[in-house]
Structures are given as structure tokens and as C-alpha cells.
Amino acid sequence: MSTPLHTPSPPSTPFDKAASIIGVTIVTSGLVPSLPDGAHLLRLDPALHDHPPGQECIACATAGDIRAQLFDLLQQRRAGTVPPFTSVIVDATRLRDPHSVVARFDGPALGLRDHTVARSFRVDDVI
Predict the structure, then answer these.
(1) Which pLDDT belongs to residue 15?
(2) N-terminal to C-terminal alpha carbon distance within the chain
(3) Which of 25, 27, 23 is nearest to 92 (CA)?
(4) Cα Rg for the chain, rounded, in angstroms?
(5) CA angle, 103 as apex, 94 and 112 as ends, to 5°?
(6) Cα separations (Å) of 66 from 42, 77, 109?
(7) What is the pTM of this model?
């Protein structure tokens, strides 16, 4: 009688299906509300310097890119470098056009990172 071979499961990647969807509140004006239990605060930084309209450099574009920031946060959560969280409050009040954050979040997914964010997060509220 032979013993069946056990095939180990492949290691998880940041692109694996999320266990649950995490609610996101985007604050575009006013004061950032106090954090409820289980919430993580994510601050988006303004551009590092001025650009002509539509011509941001990569460094400035990344500083305010909600998808890149949420993807990085998800990777940190999976790696255990940030405490577990059940919601995210995004502080976009320092950006020149904070409403573009909402448009960027809702825009089409262009790569694996964007699909991971779309599968893992949803906008619950815009303040």
C-alpha cells in the first residue's frame, strides 16, 4: 500500500484573494475624525513641488496615489508590520485636489496592484 503524495500549497502572495473587504472613508475637507477601534489612518501627501496641470512627476504622483498606498498598507498588514485593521480613514485634506483621490479609487483597474486594491477595499464614505 503506497502513501499518497502530499502537495504543499504555494506560498501566498499580495495578489491572493482578500479574506474580507475593508471599508475606506476618504476625508477631503475639514478635520479628520477620531479613529474608531480597528481603524488605520492613512495620510496622503501633497505634491513635493509644483507641476503644470497633468504633468506630475512619478515621486509626486505616488505620494498622493491612494491605490499604491492602500496596496502597500495591505502588504504591511499581511507581513505583520502593522496591526490588523478593519477599516481605513484616508486623510486627503493636504492634497491640492482631494476629490481626485475618489476618482482615482473608482477608476478602472490597470494592473495586478489595482485589482488587489479593488478586491480588498471599498469606499464607504467621502467626507
Answers:
(1) 45
(2) 66
(3) 27
(4) 18
(5) 105
(6) 9, 16, 13
(7) 0.70
Grid coordinates of 51: 507641476
3-state SS of 19-64 is CCCEEEEEECCCCCCCCCCCEEEEECCCCCCCCCCCCCCHHHHHHC
CA atoms within 13 A on the CB side of 55: 4
Angle value at C-alpha 14, between 8 and 18, nearest 5 degrees? 90
Q: Write out pLDDT tens, residues 55-96.
A: 655 555 555 578 888 888 888 988 889 898 889 998 888 877
The DSSP bridge partners found for residue 41 are 89
Reduced to 3 states (helix: H, G, I; strand: E, B; else coil), residue 3 is coil
Q: How far apart are CA 83 and CA 37, in angstroms?
A: 12
